Amino acid sequence: MKKEEVPQDDGLLQGKTRDLYYVLDENGNYVSALSTGWEPKNIVMQQAWDLINESVEEAKNKVLNKEASPLLYHMEKNQMDIKLLAQYTNINKNKIKDHLKFGGLDNASEADLQSYADAFRISIDQLKSIN
Amino acid sequence: MTDIKFEHKQSAHCENGVTANLFTFHGLKISEPLVFGIGSGLFFAHMPFMKLTGIPVTGFRPMPGIIFQRAAKKLGIKMKVKTYKNPKQAMADLDANLAKGIPTGCVVGVFHLTYFPEPYRFHFNAHNLVAFKKENDLYYISDPVMENITTLTYKDFERVRFAKGTAEPKGKMYWPISVPKEVNLKKAIIKGIRKTCYDMTEIPLPFFGAKGIHYLAKQMLKWPKKMEERKALQYLGQVVRMQEEIGTGGAGFRFMYAAFLFECYTIFQDERFKQFSMEMTQIGDLWREFAIEASRLVKNRSRSGSDWESVSKLLHNIADKEQDTFERLYKLAKEWDKKL
């Protein structure tokens, strides 16, 4: 790739940083150049996020339909499964399964609620809702 | 508290970047592409028997940590590496290092990495950064993929150093304890090239090197036949993500390797390295073309088999080129190896 071809398709880096590419400059030497983003990459990253967002949306609906507790929503939002959540909270997987059922959080101890809240970096109040 | 003058140099990839920045701090001025080449960082693997979040693993580099280990070993640099069970101890030891003025490499998970752009925050636990200063509750961080120096609070830093899930970092930290005054750069480079050429052309398994690219190209045609189109496109998207995600320098490290070969040309004063650098650049451009075609397929969700065919064909062509280029580069490396 030549230096003048370095793509500047804004997107996922959100202006927080830029990607570094190794490119040929006008004299045929290798140099580095910065890019704000590249469309093909934006497309495939968005594809990965669409999948995550769908799971979050599904979880949200389950909570609204009283098929699951808000814990499911927060777990999906944090891209976690039961195993990973268990690792972050030190709560037994079977216990987590109970807590994921509709109304499950009502039976959870204060300590468990706090562990979940810490894992998701939210308050206990936020944990109990899907807003 | 000692005020460390640590030069933050942005790089494409975290592991090479941390390595280059740490070695440079200790007096061995070295670029990212050189670390990458000496550490035999270029690779290809497609392993359908290994899956991450249900998608087969495709890699353009070896396992995390290996490039760094190889580069240190070949350059004769001794490193101290520590992992921890107790987070408080891990933080206390880091503080002790910083108080002594030792910039320290740390492995972290990126999901909770506060300064990272949100769209890149997945549960990926093999990110590398350097902590070089602490002020009250705040750590100064040189993260090679970031343009500028960033900071992390004690709490946020502890959390990412003890991220959970696949390949937990366990507070891993590392720093050079002895760096030789003189290094045999040429020897290290040639050894690095030989390893890469072997990996790319001679591993007797279908999953690795140029063979692995052919293998992926073949497998890919089966995807739309044996699974839902959506899933097949997720598989394809994953290949492009691995190729172009933060940290490859573009085209699955091929441009970084071209930059490395260009540096070899200036070090060895052998025009042939420059020629290989240009060949690698062209191969990188072909990978970019593949990314463009593949992402179009993802976006348009085309149902016609011919699109999968054409994407697959691009890969076969790349595989042929890489096989040929690395075979000839192998010969050049062997020739130099005899002279050194």
Given as residue ranges, the uncertain stretches of chain A (5+ residues, pLDDT < 50) are none
Tally of strands of chain A: 2
Give, in spatial order, the strands making up the sheet with the most strands of chain B: 3-8-4-5-6-7
| DSSP strand content of chain A | 5-15%
CATH topology of the largest domain in chain A: 434 Repressor (Amino-terminal Domain)
Q: N- to C-terminal separation of chain A?
A: 46 Å
Radius of gyration of chain A: 21 Å
The CATH architecture assignment of the largest domain in chain A turns out to be: Orthogonal Bundle
Helix-strand topology string of chain B: HHEEHEHEEEEHEHHHHHH
Number of E-type strands of chain B: 8
Count up the helices of chain B.
Answer: 11
Order of secondary-structure elements of chain A: EEHHHHHH
Number of structurally distinct domains of chain A: 2
